[in-house]
Amino acid sequence: xxxxxxxxxxxxxxxxxxxxxxxxxxxxxxxxxxxxxxxxxxxxxxxxxxxxxxxxxxxxxxxxxxxxxxxxxxxxxxxxxxxxxxxxxxxxxxxxxxxxxxxxxxxxxxxxxxxxxxxxxxxxxxxxxxxxxxxxxxxxxxxxxxxxxxxxxxxxxxxxxxxxxxxxxxxxxxxxxxxxxxxxxxxxxxxxxxxxxxxxxxxxxxxxxxxxxxxxxxxxxxxxxxxxxxxxxxxxxxxxxxxxxxxxxxxxxxxxxxxxxxxxxxxxxxxxxxxxxxxxxxxxxxxxxxxxxxxxxxxxxxxxxxxxxxxxxxxxxxxxxxxxxxxxxxxxxxxxxxxxxxxxxxxxxxxxxxxxxxxxxxxxxxxxxxxxxxxxxxxxxxxxxxxxx
Length: 389
Description:
The protein is globular, with a radius of gyration of 25 Å. It has 389 residues and is of the alpha/beta class.
């Protein structure tokens, strides 16, 4: 979709009519679409339908993009509104900065607020034109756009933010040497710009790379899903300890010195650490803070007879513990009339889908949570109340 083709139609009566039609879920009515084409024979109706559909499709995630120019691929890759606000907060204290690999401008929108100048860099001329249009909707931004490689950036700024392209041949890669710019280029950029933040894949094996150990890593999750790992250089970071961030609540857990690796039996409650805590390897730190124990050294599960409320764990009330036996489990399911079972595995190699096919769920509305865990050398079933607290 060419940006110049649709720019002149964005504020038109036609475009509003198309969006109203899409909001009413009547866009599949061939007669209505054909009527619009007849009334506006010179208009790029198909392109406008596509563009309006993208705005509506991604509005829940991006919040502010109702009038933005989008592509489906870049909207999917863009930070959510909440993540973008967090990334922007990292740059809040600086007056001059740059967003390298700015894409359609979601992080740029947040980073560029209250800046004397902010540079926006992207290798794609077409995508950069989208970002330029989108940022033009905000009169208080002073942004300079550059169509160059990130590693070619050479302006004088206090800090830079980079969201490298992690797709290699249209496939996502968790290898930082497959990013663009890659880890070598980022290391060189940090020599010139000591205050640097780099957005990384939540799946990256960060422990393998010494570069990420010298700064601070922010493990950012939104709605209980780990969304990004943000590397902040030593000059940018507040500390070199790991930080777990829960969004949209804006709750932080910073790594502490105390750890608790003690083991205990399964108590009345099972506590499942948040994805950020697990990825940051801070389970034993959290156990120390909450004064609860692990049930096995290899499992990301904590337990206690105490009821503890924390935004960094989900609490499940234990109802039944039994040895690993499909027959006994199915008997229990029948006796309790369980119709829905949320299955969670720890140290169990079989897929949830495969295991579920062995169960004889009942008709009705009763729900439960099943943990399949390997404690020592033995697998067990832990059945919990479905209600998460």
